[in-house]
Amino acid sequence: MRFGIFYEHQLPRPWDAGTEQRLYADALDQVEVADRMGFDYVWEVEHHFLEEYSHSSAPEVFLAAASQRTSNIRLGHGIVQIPPPVNHPARVAERVATLDLVSGGRVDFGTGEGSAAAELGGFGVPRDRKREMWHDALDAITRMFVEEPFAGWDSPHLKMPPRNVIPKTVQKPHPPLWVACSRRETILLAARNGIGALSFAFVHPEEARQWSQEYYRLLESEECVPAGFAVNPNLACVLPMMCHEDPAVARERGGLGAGFFAYALAHYYGQGEHAPGHGSIWDDFSRDRPHLGARGTDPLAGALGSPAQLVELIRRYEEAGVDQMIFVLQAGPNRHEHICESLELFGKKVLPVFAEEREARERAKAERLAPAIEAAMARRSPARTLASPYLIDETGETARIRHRGAPHPREMWSGARKRARRGGQNALARLVSGREDTDLERWFGPRQQRVMFALMARAFDESRSAGFQGAIEFALQPAETWTLMVRGARARAFRGATRSPALRLELRAADFLRIIAGTTNPAGLLMSGKIRIKGDMTLASRVTEMFGGASPY
């Protein structure tokens, strides 16, 4: 088992002139403590425009600073958003290589698509194209690491002539590759691409076991075609953490930060509204906190405890097949001195317990996976070489890059459908805005509900269902129950319950209507107890996109 710490650089309001500077200075001190105590990784996220939740928009700068204050800890991009509208692939390759040079070869390169509306809209990344942008950019970046010169790229998302992208990384062929994962589908995506899975979903050990089994089964199968020029077989899970000899003190010191982390996450990754520069997520959290309920069995509470409790918890993740535990300590209002004390206590009393067996475990794992990795690398297309030297031609190159051509008819039709759907949602939003539950439920009766569920069934997208077959039940209070039944590539809706649904969602009809209209945040409703989920939580996370809504991922 390896151990890491993770930074969003959270900064709840109110702010003053020096708060961001103190935030970064404290974080660098904490990384120095973690390095001294034997932690293996520090992971730094890349986010943009997510006030209070994450003030980490230039992770390469923070990690470069950390590299000069540490000796052994690995510096993880967790993650770089690589769709070209956010970061040009050549600039990503250059920055990662430079960080690898100044750190003496200590970089891990985590990648991602971005998923917050504030980021996708801010950079003009279409939500339904971000996955293909990620895949395309990752292929280009890994080739930039190894090709001399890079042989150029011509895709719908990136057009670049041959160039020698320098500098090159210390680690050969390149730093270990990872991808951000928030659900089962992206865990499997990581396995198919032969890269590490950074699971940012707070999952229980039992769910982690299922993810680990599926990850390694796929990675060892013929479906694995490496995205890079080396395979990184690793699964990491993230949890909030605070360690103290007295478990009650650990919960007191870390519980508020963990709660704010989850609340702010729901704020930006749900479907609620956000006005840049206005409002206070911290004030909203403080107002709603009494209604959020206890978290005694939630994984958010799992890593807040004594050293003995943390050893027991980590053992469960280790036995589940998790390779690295990544801990969030800097969250919400958590205090710098408490974070440092926690890192020191963890380093003294928890890390040594797992260090004794680590080398033997990792050696056995490497031996077991070696044949599968060799076979996977044989399926990867090799680095390219140019048949003859390429001469730079500025005029011709810029002309080719500017020429985009007319959109494909399929894209035009898809765009028209999306605009129509968006127009309908906007009209519904105007209808529900400001109306009381009883008023909405009087209007949204059985006839209107029948129409709504029929439209959802018609909008079913098999490509976003991850192969799901079965029933999803909606118990709309005060009276009606509806079922969406998925069979093959189609879905049908009918009134009433069904036997053994895979998922049952219980909520007021008014709140269901607000979710459909996009005027309320479903994650916030879940945290406040206004939505009850019975059954497959992973399925619940993708219901919206399966039936015509925008993916939150």
CATH superfamily of the largest domain: Luciferase-like domain
Going across the biggest sheet, name each strand in turn. Answer: 1-2-3-4-7-8-9-12
Question: Biggest β-sheet: count, sense, barrel?
Answer: 8 strands, parallel, barrel
End-to-end separation: 28 Å
The CATH architecture of the largest domain comes to: Alpha-Beta Barrel
- Which overall shape is indicated by the principal axes computed on the Cα atoms? globular
CATH topological fold name of the largest domain: TIM Barrel
Which stretches are poorly predicted, pLDDT < 50 over at least 5 residues? 294-300, 405-413
SS strand fraction: 15-25%
Number of helices: 20
Please compute the radius of gyration using only Cα atoms.
24 Å
Oligomer: single chain
Give the helices and strands, then pairings.
Elements: E1 2-7, H1 19-37, E2 41-44, H2 59-67, E3 74-81, H3 89-102, E4 107-112, H4 117-123, H5 130-146, E5 153-154, E6 159-160, E7 177-181, H6 184-192, E8 196-199, H7 205-219, E9 235-240, E10 242-243, H8 247-269, H9 281-288, E11 304-305, H10 307-319, E12 324-328, H11 336-349, H12 351-379, H13 394-402, H14 409-432, H15 437-443, H16 446-458, E13 470-477, E14 480-487, E15 490-495, E16 503-508, H17 509-517, H18 522-527, E17 532-535, H19 537-541, H20 543-546
Could you write a compact summary of the structure shown?
It contains 20 helices and 17 strands. It has 553 residues and is α/β, with parallel strands linked by helices.
